[in-house]
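Q: what does this look like with adenosine-5'-triphosphate bound?
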Amino acid sequence: MITAKNLTKRYGKVAALSDVTFTIEAGEAVALWGANGAGKTTTLRCLLGVQGFEGALSVNGIDVQRHSKAARAAIGYVPQEAAFYDMRVDETAQFYARLKKAAPHRAAEVLEQVQLSEHASKRVSMLSGGMKQRLALAVALLADPPVLVLDEPTANLDVKAQRDFIRTIQDLNHAGKTVVFSSHRLDEVIALGTRVLVLSEGKLLLECRPNELASKLGLHRWLRLWIPHEHKDNSLRVLGQNGFTTMPNGTSIYVQVNADGKIAPLRSLQQASIPIEDFELVDGDLMPQGDSHA
Ligand code: ATP
């Protein structure tokens, strides 16, 4: 469904991507993984045909360099945070249906598909973050594209909205959509991904199955944090925005740390005025299951 060969993108002297080669088969759900600045967004922007690049890239058999508009039509794109005019939900879907030249009945269909039908008469400004992301997904589905591309789609969502959103994407994947998404959250990569492409400084470092990611990357050391319940969602957001790999687990959160970077997540939380109840360092490949902390 997608082939990239020697994909390279330079911004002046910075090589945002260099010689990245991969293939994504129809029906896969592939996660792009990497630290801030690794090249995930650049890869997605190349797929969308919204920026120039060197190398070869095709989507659904269409050459992105030569026919960017046609290749783009094969993709439904969901950004990290979509901006909408403040219309009603159903008007928004109808507006984009006209823009994308989709049949008018598709507007109601896609709202149903993302479980927004009962909110159709609400104004967009009244929607929660999770509902707004569902609306962005509905818009991406209007033209029934074979591929969905999502750039950290749950980065700003609370834990429940994140899980619900990922479940919807999973259903779409099982129904046949090819999914490409970037993420900082190990739990969602494991829940949704069938394969992971790991980028590092613009290069494809390795490919693996989601459940191999932690051990392949040597993510052996974790800081386990206990955060008051009402601050948990915000702390996941802050940690994600600061480039930390997180894994919520019961009442605690695991944050991947390097030997010399143990206090960096604590500092990020402190700067955001998020209280920390307790923390401990945990060494090991696999995250312990369950939660024994009283
Ligand atoms: P993040 O998780 O922070 O979104 P990313 O993996 O998506 O990171 P990219 O946004 O693809 O990373 O950036 C890759 C590299 O290219 C970085 O070094 C970044 O600074 C650089 N870069 C990206 N866009 C531009 C631009 N428009 N001009 C100059 N440099 C850029």
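Confidence is low (pLDDT under 50) at residues 286-294. The longest strand covers residues 14-24.
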